[in-house]
Amino acid sequence: MKAKVIKSVINNKMDDWFNSIEDSSVAAMARKNTIVTGGCIASMLLKEKVNDFDVYFRNRETAIAVANYYVARFKMKNKSGIECKIWVDEEKLDRVRVVIKSAGIASEEGSQKDYRYFESQPEGAATGYVADIMSNPGEIEDAYDDLNEKAQEIDDGPKYRAVFMSTNAITLSHRVQLVLRFYGDPSEIHENYDYVHCTNYWTSWNNELVLNQKALEALLARELRYVGSKYPLCSIMRMRKFIGRGWTINAGQILKAVMQLQELDLKDPEILEDQLTGVDSSYFLEVITKLKENDPEKINTAYLIEIVDRLF
Predict the structure, then answer these.
(1) Secondary structure (3-state) at 86
(2) Buried b (16+ CB within 10 A) or exposed e, 159-178
(3) pLDDT by residue (tens digit) across 295-304?
(4) What spatial distance separates the first Cα and last Cα of the chain, rounded to whole Å?
(5) How far apart are CA 104 and CA 110, in angstroms?
(6) Contact 126, 220 (CB under 8 A)
């Protein structure tokens, strides 16, 4: 898809979601403060299926309002009796989390959600395309209708209901994921991103699509370029997925991630849990639980290795 088409797809999708919010004040806040970034734009640039539209918010107030809206409705409608609430760290104001008692995650009727990131495309899929992306877009395609039709094939229930929750995000039906853990302007959100190809973004307050030249170059080359992250452990975990699908990364990029990682004490369960933000494995939840059950002074590398080997 060309830039104009991508902007139209995202604008229509977000407008559809905004209209589904029954609380007018929450809907108004979302309309003025929503950012879409990450894998969905990368996928559309290469004319691939969009798995999820990753939605972020420009300020803390909107993140909290939207989170409370969906948590309240999830608690009313879910059949599992799971207790969940919004927690805001008053000392570290960048933190908004969904706290789910004991389970750590909550899903609609116990279903499991497969989180996927944009990871790979066939060799040559982008050839000749990125160079042309900002040229005359021509006629708008029926891309949005096509995406919506495919979503309906998968899910014929009420649109944009909460179907899965973790501490960091609320997943809605029909391919929308609300990321609560980070908020701020796009530049602030991308401080938490690792690879440059996911840093293109759309903003609701001006319906603007911003395409980063370095991101387009990385997509064309299928090359991982590490731009630094607050979560280098998660970045290294994600790296294996990309490599398994034909992406390349040079030693210098890996060294940058490792250098950031070595500054962290992963034997501290709180730090380890924070660093695993975005890693899609329920086993890690069990690792953290086991570590928290023990005396912190008894936790060392050997013990951590034993726990990992046992659970994996």
Answers:
(1) strand
(2) bbbbbbbbbbbbbbbbbbbb
(3) 877 788 888 8
(4) 40
(5) 13
(6) yes
